[in-house]
Each structure stands twice: as structure tokens, then as C-alpha cells.
Amino acid sequence: MTNTPLVSVIIPTYNRASCISAAIDSVLNQSYPRIELIIVDDGSTDDTAAVLQGYGDRIRVIGQQNAGPAVARNRGIAVSAGDIIAFLDSDDQWLPLKLECQVKSLNAAGPEVACSLCNCTVLYANGKKTSTFAIADTMPKYATGIWLNPIEVLLNRFVMFNQAVAIRRDVLERVGYFDESLRFGEDYELPFRLALEGPWTILREELVVYHEASPGSWAKTALREEIRLRRDLVRIRTRMLSSIKDRPSLTKLRAPAGRELRREKRELSIAEFGQRKQRGAARIARNLAIIERMRRALFRRSPLYPRMLVQQLILQ
After folding, report:
1. Helix pair 226-245, 186-195: axis angle to 10 deg
2. What is the pTM of this model?
3. Residue ranges covered by each domain of the chain
4. Can you give the pLDDT at residue 223?
5. Does the structural domain 7-219 have CATH classification 3.90.550.10?
6. Least confident window among 22-26, 123-127, 256-260, 289-293
7. Contact 233, 185 (CB under 8 A)
8. Residue 165 pairs with which residues in a beta bridge?
9. How many C-beta atoms surround the C-beta of residue 81 within 10 A?
């Protein structure tokens, strides 16, 4: 791979005519010089097609029947030509230096590093903001570093992935694309497979703007379909435990992986119980959910809670 590899940027979209231009413009305005931008229109029924047409040959548009974001991203990967693959949701934006910083970090770290993850600004509907690293408790000590233990940390928490990652194509081809059988959590399952491949580079700077309250967002859909979400997460954690058991070098992570699977199963049981029609079920479920949150808070203060291991990376 050259020092200026082609980066394929994939934006899946569905009925986002009102905001997709901001996402596209943020990619076209990147300081990095070698980009192909692929938009996968996932069966939009609004004016999305007309908006996309206005960009002419600056973008490549792939259309498909509505099948969900995982299928759309995989379709984009399949037709892309880049050595590095990056994703952006159609209601979010990148800052101009995002790709330049990530490519530099991958070049500096070397081919043994699977991907690069940057921080994101989270904008709430009430005007407040925070960062995804702050939410996930993954704030690195250094501005740019090599994250040495992503698999250990990802066992216990989710990091914003799709908008913030740049992945080496050869690694992605080796581990596989997004799991299309998952309605939710495909952006948690793929990062775990990538973490099994080795360290990542990590950038503390907030190079993505994520709109938490975007209308029609997948996060809001997940909240409305909590049972399906929880079932998918149990499936993912079952796979995590199985993958760890298959690798003798990860023996020490078997117990943490088993603990997280048991927790996920408890939370699924609580959600299912809360939807029973029997009297008082919803109230009992709410109280049990509070207890689970308290247990989680105590765990985060315990010696068992994994901390990030990051080696400083100096960019030229």
C-alpha cells in the first residue's frame, strides 16, 4: 500500500433528502486527496435521488431495494476499489482533516494495525454535547496512539464505530463484512472481529459530528425494538465467547466474556418480563433494570474493569 492509498467512503442512505448533502459535502471537502465516494440508496422514496443526481460524477450512486444499513454498507464495500474503507451515516458529518489524520496514523503504525478509530462530537437535541470517547470511557492518554488491547475493552463497552473508523481493506476481506443477519449491533460485532486481528490506531481529536437526535435514526429504532436489540446482543456476545475459547492466547478473557454474556441474558430477560401483560410487570422490570445499572456502575469502579493500553504514536 502506498503512503497515499485510495480511500473508499461508503454512505448508506434511506429517505435523508433533507440532510444527506451535508454528509456528502463533508467528504468532498476532506483535505485527503484520494477518495472515491459511494452512496448506497437503500430504497429511498423521498427526493434523495434528485439530491444525489445534483452531484454528477463526483459521487457514485448504487441503488437497491430497502434492506437495511448492514446490507447497504456491504454492497458499497463490494463495489469499492479502495485500499482503505471508511463509512459515514447520511445524517452526520466529518471534519476536513478526518481521513488525512487516519491515513497518516495507519502509515505510521504499520500493516499489523487493522484500522484507525477517531473521537466524535455528539450533539443532542437540547443543545448539549459530549464526545463518544467520553461516553464509552475510551479516552486515550495521547493525542494519537496505538490501542494495544481493543478486544479486552470491547468486551465491556461499545464504541462509536461506523462514522469514526478507517479499515485496511485486506483485513476487512479477511474477517468478513457486516453481519446482515443482525438487525441491530452489526456495528458492535464487526469491531470485535477486527479487534481479534490486533491493535488499532486511536485519535483523541473529535473528527466526526454525530447527531444523536436525528429523525428516523437507527438508534431510535433500536429503542423502540428493545427485545430484538437485546436478542441480537445476546447472539453477538455468544459469538464473542466462542471466538475467545477458540484462541488459546485469549484464555484470560474467557471469564470476562462469560460474565458479559450472562449480564446480557439478564437484561434480555428483564426486557421480556417487562412486556408481559400481568399486573405490575412493567414496574418490576424497571426496578430490575435499575439494579442492573447499579451493578454496572459498581463494576466500572472495580479492579476487574479493563483500562485502555495505548502506546504513543508520533505523526510526521
Report:
1. 10
2. 0.92
3. 7-219, 225-292
4. 66
5. yes
6. 123-127
7. yes
8. 117
9. 9
Cα atoms in the Cβ-side hemisphere of radius 13 Å centred on 241:
15
Grid cell of 306 as nine digits: 479493563
- Confidence grade of residue 218 (pLDDT, cut at 50, 70, 90): low
